[in-house]
Write a sequence for this structure.
């Protein structure tokens, strides 16, 4: 008789973090389904059922290419020659090499790269803070972290979420986001709100499926969101559609802000943004009149050079219309309470101040550096009792770190550990990243696969996935709830594989490098027991008693979440106690306290010389199912659904260039060229080209120079990481609104 088991946990393959049942027969994974009993399943249910990644779970899990044992390089770097070693040997040797680097160059010569929120990175920070280096680089710099940092700088709350309340929310403003492809749980919530009468406004240069459902769609020129949003503010002020009571009582710097907004009348902004003035007015009125409204920005905004200014404008818009922290509007999320938080695990105070000051890029790009982080998060902590975690909110500047590896300036970086990160595919300017990694004394990768980045490593460590490890999902302490579950399957199977959790890596190195007293928990599960102890549960009990889901309740002094106008009780966690339209934090850091439109560093406007050679605007990285960033290319059933990288070109441009639908075309920028397959798209603005990101070909040769076809279709070969082109406040690098030319 076969034995069937069902284990409940959280799927970590994408940001939806669905609650799932893992079905196991005779010890083998057979399928992943939605957890029907889970309280959030009412919303998430159709997401799991329709999710191509969840359906391919067994194919993913038992794929022959999955890493099973630690590997040590046996040939030259990138030669594709590996020797299987034990975990003990791998950890001993890596620890001893890290110690060598620390002795010779200082702890700051060791860096780490993290990816999007998929693993328990709070333990990574703990290890590096105790080790003594501030040089953690990661995607939060241009994804989500930046948005939380601007939001908490202005308000002390995280005010960006797609959580419309059907029947209450009257308007949904979507800025540079395509949830139909990117976040399907949110997409369902938006459709539900629409069914109950909410207006939808979409700002996107492409007519996405999301835009197709909109009441109004603003097809702007990429990189000009700040001007567009300031113009909407201009209209709302001119027509006195703003919430005077909220502004008078709760906003700081209204007059200065209003003066700045006068620079952005719709007629002038129409020329900058390509959006007709009347459409700007229509959108401004629609958003201001239909209250409460929620607004949500994502990568279209966060990955442009003028990111901080655009985000600032976007939160001003929300504030002056009285939408901040109200039910059905932009609920404000303070750090989640009730358990031991990520920020407490990180031990940021253990990193000595003189080491923090060495963080690369922090002298120039202050918002997400130690200085900005401390300034902003100490306000948050004063009011809310805890900070947002460093993970995702405090970084060394990645492009500058790669330069330091190559030049030794401002000081040498000699070692890096990439865990849950594939920098050759997902960081800008691949050639720079490639040369930097090749120059290191030590490069370690922990992943599920031999990715192109892993192919360059000295040691490759096989990670246990969410299917083989316990889970506690807190979304960087900003979710407002905790989800979790026990490990569905064992990470080690005698004779088949020996995988470990990322926690095991950080702890394993920690105990070898003198940090033993800080790692009392032998396993990730024990570490999670500790985190849950204030609730009175172990992870096991949490999973069975609470079905792995907890929502903390606020008392009157700390009203929590869901738009309860927390400011009326505790004020805003900012230096002035108000929502800062005029940001005293930015001012103190030495920047413009108000938003200003700046042309992208590569722009078709004006007479930039490079626009003559590269006349088209390039946007990259629009999300598409079933892939997730650089993942899933080796899963046959998923690859069949989307076999090739696609570049979208407007038919008018294509006709002029002699390009037909289905042609493989070159996409060239001043950094180089790659090719993708052309899809003619009437929905993309003429003069704009959109290319997918994350493309490598696992089926191609592993060794150099191929590295699984790294240089063929990977759009980051041509993206821009020049620090002079990064946002001057955050250091964010532009992945959207570049210039290119395309040809057959
Ligand atoms: N040009 C361009 N570049 C972009 C973007 C864009 O739009 N355009 N988007 C950017 C954004 S928003 C993001 S978030 C980044 C994403 O950047 P990354 O996070 O680097 O990308 P992924 O491919 O999702 O994941 C990297 C690796 O982590 C591994 N992995 C997944 N889960 C785990 C785990 O639990 N443990 C370990 N050890 N490994 C794991 C995967 O197998 C994969 O090889 O890409 C960025 N890069
Ligand atoms: N299938 C799938 N889902 C994913 C991911 C994935 O890799 N695959 N990645 C996950 C991650 S880490 C993230 S961060 C999210 C991102 O999720 P989203 O940001 O929602 O998705 P994107 O498609 O990256 O970008 C949204 C839109 O920005 C538009 N855009 C480009 N330039 C501009 C501009 O200058 N201004 C404006 N207003 N819009 C512009 C693009 O046309 C695109 O339609 O998706 C998550 N979900
Ligand atoms: S991959 Fe699918 S099941 Fe997993 S979290 Fe994302 S949408 Fe949910
Ligand atoms: Mo992201």
């Amino acid at each position: 008789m076969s034995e069937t088991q069902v284990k409940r946990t959280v799927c970590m393959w994408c940001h939806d973090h669905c609650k799932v049942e893992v079905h196991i027969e005779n010890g083998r994974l057979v399928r992943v389904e939605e957890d029907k009993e889970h309280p959030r399943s009412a919303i998430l249910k159709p997401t799991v059922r329709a999710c191509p990644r969840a359906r391919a779970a067994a194919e993913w899990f038992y794929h022959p290419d999955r890493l099973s044992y630690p590997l040590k390089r046996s040939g030259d770097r990138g030669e594709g020659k590996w020797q299987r070693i034990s975990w003990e040997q791998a950890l001993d040797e890596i620890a001893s090499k890290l110690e060598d680097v620390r002795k010779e160059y200082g702890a700051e010569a060791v860096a780490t790269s993290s990816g999007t929120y998929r693993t328990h990175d709070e333990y990574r920070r703990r290890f590096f803070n105790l080790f003594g280096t501030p040089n953690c680089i990661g995607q939060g710099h241009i994804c989500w972290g930046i948005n939380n940092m601007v939001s908490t700088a202005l308000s002390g709350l995280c005010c960006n979420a797609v959580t419309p309340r059907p029947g209450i929310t009257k308007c949904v403003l979507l800025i540079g986001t395509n949830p139909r492809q990117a976040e399907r749980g949110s997409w369902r919530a938006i459709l539900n709100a629409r069914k109950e009468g909410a207006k939808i406004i979409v700002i996107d240069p492409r007519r996405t499926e999301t835009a197709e459902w909109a009441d109004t769609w603003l097809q702007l020129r990429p990189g000009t969101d700040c001007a567009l949003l300031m113009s909407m503010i201009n209209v709302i002020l001119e027509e006195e559609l703003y919430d005077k009571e909220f502004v008078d009582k709760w906003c700081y710097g209204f007059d200065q802000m209003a003066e700045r907004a006068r620079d952005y009348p719709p007629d002038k902004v129409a020329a900058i943004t390509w959006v007709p003035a009347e459409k700007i007015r229509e959108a401004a009125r629609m958003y201001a009149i239909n209250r409460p409204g929620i607004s949500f920005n994502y990568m279209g905004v966060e990955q442009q050079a003028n990111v901080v200014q655009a985000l600032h404008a976007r939160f001003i818009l929300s504030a002056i219309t009285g939408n901040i922290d109200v039910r059905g509007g932009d609920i404000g999320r303070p750090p989640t309470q009730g358990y031991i938080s990520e920020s407490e695990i990180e031990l940021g105070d253990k990193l000595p101040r003189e080491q923090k000051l060495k963080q690369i890029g922090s002298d120039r790009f202050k918002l997400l550096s130690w200085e900005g982080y401390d300034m902003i998060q100490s306000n948050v902590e004063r009011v809310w009792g805890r900070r947002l975690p460093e993970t995702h909110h405090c970084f060394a500047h990645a492009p500058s770190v790669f330069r330091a590896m190559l030049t030794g300036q401002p000081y040498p970086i000699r070692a890096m550990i990439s865990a849950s990160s594939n920098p050759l595919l997902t960081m800008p300017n691949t050639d720079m990243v490639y040369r930097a990694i090749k120059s290191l004394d030590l490069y370690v990768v922990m992943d599920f696969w031999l990715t192109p980045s892993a192919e360059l490593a000295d040691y490759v460590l096989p990670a246990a996935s969410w299917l083989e490890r316990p889970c506690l999902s807190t979304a960087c302490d900003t979710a407002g709830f905790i989800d979790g579950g026990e490990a569905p399957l064992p990470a080690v199977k005698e004779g088949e594989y020996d995988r470990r959790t990322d926690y095991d890596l950080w702890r394993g190195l920690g105990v070898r490098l003198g940090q033993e007293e800080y790692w009392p928990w032998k396993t990730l599960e024990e570490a999670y027991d500790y985190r849950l102890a204030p609730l009175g549960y172990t992870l096991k009990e949490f999973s069975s008693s609470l079905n792995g889901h907890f929502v903390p309740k606020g008392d009157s002094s700390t009203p929590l979440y869901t738009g309860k106008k927390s400011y009326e009780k505790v004020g805003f966690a900012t230096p002035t106690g108000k929502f800062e339209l005029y940001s005293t934090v930015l001012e103190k850091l030495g920047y413009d306290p108000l938003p200003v439109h700046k042309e992208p560093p590569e722009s078709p406007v004006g007479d930039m010389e490079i626009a003559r050679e590269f006349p088209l605007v390039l946007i990259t990285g629009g999300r598409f199912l079933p892939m997730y960033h650089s993942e899933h290319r080796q899963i046959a059933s998923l690859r069949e659904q989307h076999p090739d990288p696609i570049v979208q070109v407007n038919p008018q441009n294509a006709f002029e260039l002699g390009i037909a639908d289905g042609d493989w075309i070159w996409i060239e920028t001043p950094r180089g060229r790659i090719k993708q397959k052309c899809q003619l798209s009437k929905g993309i603005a003429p003069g704009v080209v959109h290319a997918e990101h994350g493309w490598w070909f696992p089926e191609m040769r592993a060794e150099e120079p191929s590295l699984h076809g790294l240089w063929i279709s990977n759009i980051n070969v041509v993206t821009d990481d020049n620090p002079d082109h990064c946002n001057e406040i955050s250091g964010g690098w532009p992945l959207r609104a570049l210039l290119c030319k395309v040809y057959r």
